[in-house]
Amino acid sequence: MKTTRLVNALNDRMNPLVVKELRQSARSRVFIVTLTIFLGILLFIMGIIVSEHTSSSSGRASFTSVLAVLLLATMLFVPFYSATRLALERLGDNMDLLYITTLPPHKIVRGKWMAGMMLVILFFSAALPFLCLSYFLRGVDLPTILLLSIFAFIIVGTLLQAALCLAALLRSRIGMILLGLSTLVPLFSLYSMTMEIMDRMNSQGAGYLFISGEYWPEVGAFLLVDLFVFLAFYKINIALIKPQAMDRAKPVRLFLFFGWATIMGIFSLTSNSDLALTWMAIGVLITTLSTLIACSERDRPGRRVLADPPGNPLKRALLFPFSSGAANGIAWSFIMMISVYIFIDLNDPSKSELDQNNTLGSMLNIFCYVLTAHFIQRTFLIPRFKKITMQKTWITAIVLCALGSLLPLLGVFMLSGGHVSESNSLNLLFLPSLGLLFNNHYSNAALGTTVLWFIIMVVMEMNWLIARFNEYMKGNEASNENMDWENP
Q1: How many other C-beta atoms are found inside a 10 Å radius of the C-beta of residue 116?
Q2: How far apart are CA 488 and CA 303, in angstroms?
């Protein structure tokens, strides 16, 4: 009787989306056929290895082969399967529980991920006997099998969350097909890189090295970065499912800024400068992508965004860069850019002024292109063409960036008589500035040109930025005065 009550209690507390997804997966022929093929391949591989068991390293070879098949199934099939189901539910002609359920967005995202991880656990459970058999064939120890299996499980969990996040972006079947095809090459590259690392750790006996404490710094850094990436995709996924009227960007921007800064501070305290510099490069990537996204957000926030901040004026002003809206996003990207540059200067004081100019100039150039594209879109294109909206500003920014990258390269090519070295070409690409026509790197003159361009664009966008800031500070008053009832 107590067991029945416990089962009923767990059933009531279980996410209903997980139950729905697992029931549909159990009835899916695609999943059943894939699992059967997976087991057949493992049986075939182990049969060959056992029949040719002639050396003491057969266990290592069998473990690597089983792990390769397991990762191939869980890194490719499960993310594609789960992401496709979510993408189909978000199409206009498939009004599923995603739209009519009373579950909050975070429970929907959590339920989709948990359902996918149940399938991953099923694949790992099916491969478990073959992994144990590798130990009895000798050549690999149990701690190594356990450690690499846990690493593989963590990587697959993060990859599944990333796949669900990409699926939440889709709105059409054509986009779903194109995105699926475009992610095949990165997925196979990630798979091959993961297998290479796993094979190297297997040959070194990573299990006993971890027990001895030799791998603890690397494992700690891996877990920290993986946790940040997982939570970032989780927050973004929730924001994509939320209604557009809500302040979707605030949780994402708060987490990205403080999460990145916290990890950057931890890595800066370590003696591994390469790890800190790599994390700075990730900060530059986050800044670049967020700047492109910010310029494509809605120009005027809705009532729910304006009513969300607290009444304290200081708290409102501090929350302005983190809230939804184009002006808010541009302000957040600028703060992020300054933070990255400060960390670069503090983490490596010996870094040359030339390298610092290159980093700052690269981020400033992207920022200037975005501001220029936003100004052109808002001032010239939208008033003249009804089909052009602010959501398409990122296209204008990419076109301007492409033109600005190629024209200086073409100018140097013509001025040099057709002789441009490969290094000069790479320095010019995505670092366009008039000063680069006279110097291959970001000299003070080149950086000055970029700063001048940045100041000009800020002055031209200043009235718009001030208007949006004042509107945000007024809160409900501004929402009642200038409400866009078509886009609340």
Answers
A1: 28
A2: 6
Identify the pLDDT of residue 103. Answer: 77
So what's the pLDDT on residue 288?
86
What distance lies between CA 116 and its chain's CA centroid? 19
pLDDT at position 276 is 77
H/E element, 212: none
* pLDDT on residue 57: 67
Place of tokens 């010239």: 380
424 near 412, Cβ under 8 Å? yes
Q: Looking at residue 418, what is its pLDDT?
A: 54
Prediction pTM value: 0.84
**Cβ within 8 Å of residue 237, ≥6 positions away:** 109, 161, 164, 165, 168
Give 57-84 pLDDT, tens digit per residue: 677 888 888 889 999 889 888 888 888 8
Amino acid symbol at 311: G
Q: How far is CA 437 from the centre of its chain?
A: 35
Q: Which amino acid is at 84?
A: T
Rounded Cα gap, residues 457 and 396, in angstroms:
16
Task: Please count the other Cβ atoms lying within 10 Å of the Cβ belonging to residue 317.
Answer: 13
Query: Is residue 474 exposed (0-12), middle (13-18) or buried (19+ Cβ within 10 Å)?
Result: middle
Burial 407-436 (b: 16+ CB within 10 A, else e): ebbeebeeeeeeebeeebeebbeebbbebb
What's the confidence (pLDDT) of residue 13? 66
Which residue stretches of the chain have pLDDT < 50? 352-354, 422-442, 483-488
- Whole-angstrom CA distances from 350 to 342, 344, 356, 358, 367 are 14, 10, 10, 15, 27
Torsion 370-375-378-382 (CA) sign = negative
Q: Which amino acid is at 39?
A: L
Cα–Cα distance for residue pair 291/278, rounded to 1 Å = 20
pLDDT, position 253: 94
Q: Residue 423: which H helix or E strand, with range?
A: helix 422-428
Of the candidates 202, 163, 173, 168, the one whose C-alpha atom is nearest the C-alpha of residue 64 is 202
CA dist 386 and 383 (Å) reads 7
Is-contact 409 428, C-beta < 8 A?
yes
State how far Cα 474 lies from the chain centre.
34
Distinct helix (H) and strand (E) counts, the chain: 23, 0
CA-to-CA separations, 430 to 142, 205, 360, 402, in angstroms, rounded: 49, 43, 13, 8
DSSP for residue 381: I
Interatomic CA distance for residues 386 and 382, integer angstroms: 6
Q: What pLDDT does residue 18 have?
A: 79
Residue 180's closest CA among 96, 79, 89, 110? 79
